[in-house]
Design brief:
The complex is a heterodimer of chains A (249) and B (268).
Chain A (H helix, E strand, L loop, with lengths): L10 E12 L2 E12 L3 E5 L6 H8 L7 E6 L2 E2 L9 E4 L13 H6 L14 H13 L15 H13 L5 E5 L7 H17 L3 E5 L3 H8 L5 E3 L2 E6 L1 H4 L2 H10 L1
Parallel strand pairs in A: 3-8, 6-7, 7-8
Antiparallel strand pairs in A: 1-2, 1-4, 3-10, 4-5, 9-10
Chain B lengths: L7 H26 L4 H20 L3 H22 L4 H22 L6 H7 L7 H20 L1 H9 L1 H6 L4 H23 L4 H15 L3 H26 L3 H19 L6
Helix pairs in contact in B: 1-6, 1-9, 1-10, 1-11, 2-3, 2-4, 2-9, 3-4, 3-9, 5-9, 6-9, 10-11, 10-12, 11-12
The chains are: A alpha/beta (249), B mainly alpha (268).
Bound molecules: adenosine-5'-triphosphate and magnesium ion.
């Protein structure tokens, strides 16, 4: 399933010949994969397939043992624009006693390198309120994060990932521990964002129904036990639309 | 008997105490939340080695202690890298190293006076003007750095991975927090004593964690609690001629118990 020859979408993530192993366990072997602007990629695979490991390499938490990863056309070592990426890890490793309110956690999505030595502005506070509203968690904004249910916490971390209005959203099993109804609502929300906002998605999920519904019946490619399902950007917009968007930015 | 509270030396102890009561929880909160409470203890043991050496070679002991503590804080960070995810191991290694050196210097310099006791358990009598300048300088540095990196320290303590993905210089910030801890600990030991310094770093925070909902309020609360304990403890120590380290820490533990009971925190 090659993308159309005249595809005008820029590559967002380029993975070239990447391999990774922990001590003696090979997890990813010679992976090549490109995700373009506005693609929606679903990663599926059994437990221990290496999905989380791959995402952690993409966000720079683990160095690739071999091969190269480029983000927005830049090698990962040189990449600086981290605010363009929203990342919701699989397990949030925070301490449940941590004294932080939902609002404080969502706000922390703004604390990146470029914001060092800068004060928070009124616009920053507005961004926070917007993110709370999108995830419909305004009413729990002043609660302590540790006192929330797993599903509520997941919404908080999503709000934190969205506060910068990232171009790329990376989600590691975002609906784990969330009831079916909320899950359906969540998928509706992200597919809506995919359709109407200029965003690229990379999501790990075990929910094959959702994947097949939105991304098609069969995987576009496979590496080891990991399968990639993709809804290509050129399927949802043509180059004239892209040019228009670029001229608006 | 209450005259003692008006004496010069007590006034100095009070000024020093109030400053340390401010900086200790301000740094302590970042240690407790990153589960590194033991760092305070380790650095204080190393500081004592420096103090002992200071006596031995007749250098201003607190300065020698401070240098030792800062060096140890670098060593801890180095070891933390070598033993990733075993932070407590590097802490234990440095701690025993500090105690070993301290006892070595102590036995070499047998026969120096009771001053040593005051470094172990704290004293209201031994703070001189130089010490006050030291404490004052450290207070200014700590407040300035914490204010400057408040957002970043928050994210680092909440989720180190998230800080890393945001492009923050995580290693450097860990280092800064450890060095600040060394500064606070080494200046606090003259008042609270090396054996009890870490209590002042951690217990006010432990109490505030039971009460506060937000990060901001837990910082404010822990500073208030720490000041109550320091000022109250120093007065008790002055009036009844006790070691201030003991009175301050016992006051803190009483406050903790009251809070737990008041909150019916003994959930079963
Ligand atoms: N820190 C680590 N040290 C050593 N091995 C690890 C580490 N993290 C993961 N592994 C191993 O690497 C393999 C891939 O793990 P990974 O977490 O990437 O899988 P996953 O596809 O995300 O699985 P799941 O669906 O359970 O989330 C597993 O076999 C795991 O045991
Ligand atoms: Mg995983």
């Amino acid at each position: 399933m090659e993308p159309a020859a005249q595809d005008c979408h820029q590559p967002i993530i380029q993975i070239k010949n990447v391999s990774f192993h922990y001590r003696d366990q090979q997890v990813i072997k010679d992976l090549n994969f490109t995700i373009k602007e506005r693609d929606f990629v679903g990663m599926v695979g059994s437990n221990g397939a290496g999905k989380t490991t791959l995402l952690r390499m993409i966000v720079g938490l683990l160095p690739a043992v071999e091969g190269s990863i480029e983000l927005f056309g830049q090698p990962i070592r040189k990449f600086q624009d981290w605010e363009r990426i929203g990342y919701v890890p699989q397990k949030n490793s925070f301490n449940p006693l941590f004294p932080a309110t939902v609002r404080e956690v969502v706000m922390s999505g703004l604390y990146n390198r470029k914001k060092m030595f800068r004060r928070l502005t009124r616009l920053d506070h507005q961004k926070c309120e917007d993110a709370l509203e999108v995830m419909r968690i305004q009413d729990i904004a002043d609660k302590r994060i540790g006192a929330l249910s797993g599903g509520q916490q997941q919404r908080v971390f999503l709000a934190r990932a969205l506060i910068n209005r990232p171009d790329l959203l990376i989600l590691d099993e975002p609906t784990i521990g969330i009831d079916a109804e909320t899950q359906a609502g969540f998928f509706e929300l992200i597919t809506h964002m995919h359709a109407h906002h200029h965003m690229t998605f990379l999501m790990v999920t075990h929910d094959l129904d959702m994947v097949k519904d939105y991304l098609g019946e069969s995987p576009v490619s496979q590496n080891g036990k990991i399968q990639f399902y993709v809804r290509h950007s050129h399927e949802i917009e043509n180059c004239a639309e892209v040019d228009l968007q670029h001229s608006l930015v | 008997m209450l005259d003692i509270l008006l004496s010069d030396f007590f006034q100095r102890a009070l000024i020093g105490g109030v400053l340390i009561g401010l900086t200790a929880p301000l740094i302590g909160i970042f240690l407790v939340l990153r589960r590194l409470s033991m760092i305070g203890d380790t650095l204080s043991h190393v500081t004592i080695a420096g103090v002992a050496l200071g006596f031995l070679i007749e250098v201003y002991p607190l300065a020698a202690g401070l240098v030792f503590a800062v060096l140890a804080s670098f060593a801890i960070e180095k070891l933390r890298k070598a033993y990733k995810s075993y932070a407590e191991l590097s802490i234990a290694i440095i701690m025993s190293g500090g105690v070993a050196l301290a006892s070595l210097f102590f036995t070499l310099g047998m026969g120096y006076n009771t001053d040593v006791m005051s470094y172990l358990f704290g004293s209201i009598y031994t703070l001189d003007t130089t010490d006050i300048y030291m404490v004052g300088g450290v207070t200014i540095i700590v407040i300035a750095v914490v204010v400057m990196f408040f957002k970043e320290f928050f994210l680092l303590s909440f989720e180190e991975d998230a800080a890393s993905v945001s492009g923050l210089p995580v290693k450097m910030m860990n280092m800064i927090i450890t060095v600040l801890t060394a500064l606070v600990v080494s200046t606090a030991i003259k008042i609270v004593g090396a054996l009890l310094v870490s209590a002042l770093l951690t217990i006010p925070v432990a109490i505030s964690l039971l009460l506060a909902r937000s990060f901001r309020s837990s910082i404010v609360l822990s500073v208030i609690i720490s000041e109550i304990a320091v000022i109250g403890g120093l007065m008790l120590a002055g009036v009844f001629n006790l070691a201030p380290g003991a009175t301050i820490v016992l006051l803190l533990i009483s406050l903790l118990i009251v809070t737990l009971v008041g909150k019916k925190g003994f959930t079963t």
